[in-house]
Each structure stands twice: as C-alpha cells, then as structure tokens.
Design goal:
The complex is a heterodimer of chains A (110) and B (115). Chain A is mainly β. In chain A, 0% of the residues lie in helices and 55% in strands. Chain A contains no helices and 11 strands. Chain B has 115 residues and is mostly beta strands. Classes of the chains: A mainly beta (110), B mainly beta (115). At the A-B interface, strand 4, strand 5 and strand 9 of A face strand 5 and strand 10 of B.
Chain lengths: 110, 115
C-alpha cells in the first residue's frame, strides 16, 4: 500500500463547476500538506500548503485537512479551462522530504 | 519564491552515454532536491544535495548512476550515467522554501529520451 493514495482520474467537469480533489494517507507522522498543479510539460507549481487541520482559502482554491481521518482535499470553485492540469498532493513529516501522491488529471470543458 | 532554471530543457541521447543536467537558482538555498518523474507517474526523489557535503541518495538510486555536484548555494548538477531507455523520464530539481511548512519549489524539468 502506498503511503499517499490519489485517484488518477481523469476527472472531467464543465466550466464553472466545483471540483473536489482528494488524497488519503497512512503515515500519521505527516504534518505538512501541499497541493501542486502541473501543466503538461511543465514543472509542478506550488498552489497551497498548510500545517494544521481545517480549511485554508486562497481565491478560488480551498485546502482542507482532516488529520483524524488522514484525508486532505483541494476544492476549486468556478473552475476554468485554464485549471486543466494534473494536481499532486504532497506531504511531509519532521524531516525534509516530501511524499507525493500519484496525481489527478483534471479537465475543465468550456 | 525562488526562480529555478534547468538546462537542457530536453534532450535525446544514445544508449550508453551520459547527460549532465544543470539547475540554477536565483537565490541562495541550503537544500536542493533531484526528482524523477516517469511518464504518467508521480515524483520520485533521487537524492538530496546540500552544499559542501555528499548527496544523500534514496533507496534504488546510487551515486555511480546519478552523480550529483553542489559546488555552491545556487547551483547543482545531476548526471545520468550509462543511460538506457529505462532512464527516459523528466528530471526535476527543487529547492526548499523559506517558510516552515517544508514546501518545495520546482524547476521546469528536463525531458530526457534515451534511444
């Protein structure tokens, strides 16, 4: 079993929809949680990061962490075609390394 | 966040040859990381490179195959040695952020094809 599980998709939604992307993890030592967006043929771009359980909002993006359930989510409101990309969750413990999920490919149709 | 560049952006190489990938950062950073991303897959950490010390390799990666240099706080190289088609992948460098959340910032990647 992988430490971080993420549905690979693809997830196809119409423009304007609310998108929910999720990751589950098994390592209770993970303290830091991040979401990256990766466009085709580009490097991953850090979208959001958080430490504690609860919600963190940034524009159309909301990151949610539930440590008791070992579950994190990224919500995208009013999704746009430009949001079409692969979204990677990443987690870190007290060390300096990150463990990445496999990525979910999102397609937002105009 | 730091601005990271990589050279080359892509290359096609012959089996048995070696390629050195460069990673340049616009600010001084302590830790740099090298990842591999195989087609359709997530990121796998190859090694962590600190300036002034030997790189630390992850399980499955060895120095003879992936030698790394870190001559200063803004630059690192990764060499992929004696390449085979299985080494075809995207190679990414990243640096740690300035925050306390262990966030990392990535370069644009080097797309390597071995024929």
């Amino acid at each position: 079993q992988k430490e971080v599980e993420q549905d690979p998709g693809p997830l196809s939604v119409p423009e304007g929809a609310i998108v929910s992307l999720n990751c589950t993890y098994s390592n209770s030592a993970f303290q830091y949680f991040m979401w990256y967006r990766q466009y085709s043929r580009k490097g991953p771009e850090l979208l959001m990061y958080t430490y504690s359980s609860g919600n963190k909002e940034d524009g159309r993006f909301t990151a949610q962490v539930d440590k008791s359930s070992k579950y994190i989510s990224l919500f995208i409101r009013d999704s746009q075609p430009s949001d079409s990309a692969t979204y990677l969750c990443a987690m870190g413990d007290a060390g300096n390394m990150l463990t990445f999920g496999g990525g979910t490919r999102l397609m937002v149709k105009p | 966040s730091a601005v990271i560049s990589q050279k080359p952006s892509r290359d096609i190489c012959q089996r048995g040859t070696s390629l050195t990938i460069q990673c340049q950062v616009d600010s001084q950073v302590t830790m740099m990381f090298w990842y591999r991303q195989q087609p359709g897959q997530s990121l796998t950490l190859i090694a962590t490179a600190n300036q002034g010390s030997e790189a630390t390799y992850e399980s499955g990666f060895v120095i003879d195959k992936f030698p790394i240099s870190r001559p200063n706080l803004t630059f690192s190289t990764l060499t992929v040695s004696n390449m085979s088609p299985e080494d075809s992948s995207i190679y990414l460098c990243s640096v740690e952020g300035e925050g306390a959340f262990q966030e990392q910032y990535f370069g644009p990647g080097t797309r390597l094809t071995v024929t």
